[in-house]
């Protein structure tokens, strides 16, 4: 064993030759004797304390390490949790069902509230039809953006001639004009939609606003033409000239390019008004209240679908935990059993170490006696019998934990015998509870729809 040093190394460490020379000078081996010398006794003390003691510490540390590893095993705990899977999944799904029930009640209350708002809106405004609007506004807004960009690009070409910055300056002027036209178009679409309102007073008010906004838009579009024409004469005084010309003779535009700008801006405004008007229902506010109800309805349906998904995820998570727990029990059992075998091997190694230590002690004594005989050069003196390692004085390995763990291993073997059956029972319990809770969710959804009047909505 590597733990027991070689004889030569022990001889060198103990300095046996020096011991022999010292004893010979003292005359110790000159007469027959039956007792051992002090040096011989020191050899036994060295083997017992230094060699066997060190080996004992190493073997005991290895045993303690194995015992600590076995102490970390949670086979009983995991097995009990496996057996309690039915109770655990019942508690988990019951808690999840309670939370989902509150979420469903809240979503249904929102749908009921928005539906009531929609019905009240229809009743107050005398509407019997459904709202007509575009589900997606992206296409309409993209067309509006395209119109603004095209108008800006065309007008920037006509305005670049009179700008100090050339085409760049014309572009920014054209962009400002397009944005103003977009503002006019948005207001015109808003007033036009209010002309369909049920209230006569509101219709009259917004008719006046619509006519006024139309007139103001036409003046602005014509003003753009006058400004373009004034740029040809004097770019620095073009704004004042355009205002003066617009106030005296609004239609007196003599430049062809300026008329093109007027036409382009007018067409852009009309197209923008049409797109902004058609994106929502013609009756003001009808689209917004309808969208709120439909969005609430979608959230309700998503909540219903999500309820089943959450319960299924909870069950799958529990299945995964049970599977991991079952695999953990098997791996811990294998490690536990292997650790006991390693501890047994360590104990046997210690017994072998003691036998080897006795052999080492015999070799050291023989060497001592042989060297003494060579030095005295006379009839070999009688030396006492070879020393024996005193077993009762040797440190003993602490294997109390090992004995307890052997008993635990017997119990764990019984656990492993029924583990497959318990695993199947746990999985069946999860499936049964999942089916039961799914039926409860269905019943709850039907009850909520019936109580809230959501059936067929």
Give short descriptive properties of this protein.
457 residues; mainly alpha; 0% strand; elongated
Explain the layout of strands and helices.
Elements: H1 7-14, H2 16-25, H3 38-71, H4 75-83, H5 85-125, H6 138-159, H7 167-194, H8 200-233, H9 238-248, H10 256-278, H11 286-376, H12 400-417, H13 419-452
Helix pairs in contact: 2-11, 3-11, 4-11, 5-11, 5-13, 6-7, 6-10, 7-8, 7-10, 8-9, 8-10, 11-12, 11-13
Describe this structure in words.
- This protein has 457 residues and is mainly alpha-helical.
- The protein folds into 2 domains: 7-83 and 300-452, no CATH class; 134-279, no CATH class.
- It contains 13 helices and no strands.
- Helix 3 packs antiparallel against helix 11 (286-376), helix 5 (85-125) runs antiparallel to helix 11 (286-376) and helix 7 (167-194) crosses helix 10 (256-278).
- The longest helix has 91 residues, at 286-376.
- It is elongated and about 150 Å long.
- The two termini are 86 Å apart.
- The model is unreliable at 378-382 (pLDDT under 50).
């Amino acid at each position: 064993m590597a733990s027991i040093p070689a004889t030569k190394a022990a001889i060198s460490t103990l300095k046996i030759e020096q011991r022999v020379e010292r004893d010979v000078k003292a005359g110790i081996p000159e007469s027959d004797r039956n007792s051992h010398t002090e040096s011989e006794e020191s050899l036994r003390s060295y083997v017992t304390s230094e060699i066997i003691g060190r080996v004992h510490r190493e073997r005991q540390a290895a045993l303690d390490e194995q015992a600590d590893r076995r102490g970390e095993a949670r086979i009983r705990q995991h097995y009990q949790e496996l057996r309690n899977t039915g109770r655990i999944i019942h508690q988990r799904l019951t808690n999840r069902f309670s939370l989902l029930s509150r979420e469903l009640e809240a979503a249904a209350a929102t749908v009921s509230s928005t539906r009531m708002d929609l019905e009240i809106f229809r009743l107050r405004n005398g509407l019997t039809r459904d709202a007509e609007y575009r589900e997606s506004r992206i296409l309409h807004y993209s067309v509006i953006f395209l119109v603004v960009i095209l108008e800006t690009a065309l007008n920037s070409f006509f305005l670049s001639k009179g700008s100090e910055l050339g085409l760049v300056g014309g572009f920014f002027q054209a962009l400002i004009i397009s944005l103003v036209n977009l503002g006019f178009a948005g207001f015109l679409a808003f007033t036009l939609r209010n002309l369909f309102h049920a209230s006569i007073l509101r219709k009259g008010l917004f008719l006046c606003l619509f006519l006024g906004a139309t007139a103001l838009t036409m003046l602005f579009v014509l003003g753009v033409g006058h400004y373009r024409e004034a740029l040809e004469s004097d770019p620095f005084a073009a704004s004042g000239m355009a205002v003066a010309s617009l106030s005296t003779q609004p239609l007196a535009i003599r430049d062809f390019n300026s008329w093109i700008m007027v036409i382009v801006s007018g067409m852009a405004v009309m197209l923008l008004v049409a797109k902004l008007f058609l994106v929502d229902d013609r009756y003001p506010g009808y689209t917004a209240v309808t969208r709120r109800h439909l969005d609430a309805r979608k959230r309700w349906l998503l909540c219903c679908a999500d309820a089943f998904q959450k319960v299924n995820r909870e069950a799958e998570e529990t299945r995964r935990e049970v599977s991991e727990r079952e695999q953990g029990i098997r791996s811990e059992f294998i490690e536990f059993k292997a650790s006991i075998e390693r501890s047994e091997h360590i104990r046997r190694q210690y017994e072998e170490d003691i036998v080897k230590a006795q052999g080492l002690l015999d070799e050291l004594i023989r060497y001592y006696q042989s060297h003494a005989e060579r030095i005295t050069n006379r009839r070999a003196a009688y030396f006492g019998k070879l020393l024996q390692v005193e077993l009762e004085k040797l440190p003993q390995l602490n294997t109390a934990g090992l004995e307890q763990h052997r008993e635990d291993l017997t119990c764990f073997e019984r656990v492993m015998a029924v583990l497959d059956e318990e695993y199947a029972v746990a999985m069946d319990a999860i499936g049964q509870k999942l089916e039961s809770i799914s039926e409860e969710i269905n019943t709850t959804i039907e009850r909520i729809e019936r109580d809230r009047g959501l059936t067929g909505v």
